[in-house]
Amino acid sequence: MSRLLALLLLFAVASLAAGPVYVVLWFDTEDYIEPSADDAALRIAADLRAEGVKATFKIVGEKARLLESRGRRDVIQALSQHAIGYHSNWHSVHPTPAEYLVTLNYLEGADEFERREGPGLADVKRILGADPVCYGQPGSSWGPQSNLALRRMGIPVYLDEGEQVGLNGQPFWYGGLLYVFGMGKNQFRARLDVGPEDSAANRRFDEAAARLGADGGGGISIYYHPTEFVTTEFWDGVNFARGANPDRGSWVKPKRRTAAESERCYGVLRRFVQHMKQRPGVRFVTPREILGLYESPLPGVLGRSAVAAQLRRSISFAQVNGEMLSPADMLLALLDMQPQVVDGPAAPAKTTYAQRTIPAAAFRLAALDAAAFIRRFGRLPNAVFVGAETVSLIDFAATLANAIEATGDVTLVHGNTGFEQYFATDGRKPFNWVIHPEGFDGTPLLALARLQGWTLKPARLGK
Length: 463
Ligand SMILES: [Zn+2]
Hints:
The protein is built from 16 helices and 16 strands. The protein is globular. The chain is α/β, with parallel strands linked by helices. The chain has two domains: about 25-295, TIM Barrel; about 305-340 and about 350-415, no CATH class. Strand 6 (about 170-175) and strand 7 form a beta hairpin. The structure holds zinc ion. Zinc ion binds near residues 87 and 138.
């Protein structure tokens, strides 16, 4: 009896200590070809509201415009009861974001993303009457240049899935955005093709919630498309596959589910949601709520010597004196700058400086110039100058970390970055989307993405 009591007590303590589990449930609301997808969005929004669950509908610009022109105030009204996100202007009409970003550098790409996607965002804002807090790319059409553009567009959260970057299957800070992305085993769904309920998904959810709870808390990402509930093939796959770009008059509609089949699918989602929400400690959250749950990316006051010691070990994110720091945070601290959101370098650079030491005065000037560059442009320089010669950002950071404790002439140190492991290396597989041309190669996008690894660090749940 006493053993049972002890066991029960232990169980009670364990469940009290379990961290909170957050579920972000999102719907890419994108099909502007099959009108019954409008009804699906309406039905899902209403069902979830009846369950008391707030979801996120990431809306395509053209979808919003069509809801307006078809007079679907009912759908617009139902969606605006939930959180609204943005899901590109045209989704699968070519060129898609990765297609137009792949030949552009970081700054050109940000400008082009803003030029092409900005008007759709304005339409979603106007039609839905809400400011989207998150964006996610169509398919796997991702590019790092969108980070800078999204910050300019006032969107602070990146909510999607993809293999280009990821950090232990939990949210992270990257390019100044809170990324819910690459969630790995914390991203799954109840399948719509296994009968009235997917009990395997329920078990998977219970496992994930228990694991995250025991680990101090964490997030689970679940997504669908309203169109999946009324069609058996994707609206874009039947029109824009492998680079095809038929004109509007030739668009064809995807195959429909029967009404009974659609009912079954709505039931699958509803049962899955009912299962998830009855578990203690589980909370459905919107992107705005996620922002509030995680600590600000800007660190407090930092001890320069502890930061320098960390940077000497490796140029990668790390916890220093209780603060989670990106390499960019560390570099700013060593340059005596206020913490701020910055971009990584726009391009790789080489060290041409050939001597072993840099005169102290020359190095001081180089550091002042680096700080001036960051203040002016809001991004890290590719390299700093020592006279006519360059020291790459990586070598500059390593040299600066070493010089903090020293006096006199500065020894040039060649640095190593440790953040590459969080990025995909294969240019094809992460971009393999049926809409992209056959063999589309995103290698240049991944190279730019790794440079932005200077800004990468785990997001930490607030106390
Ligand atoms: Zn989509």
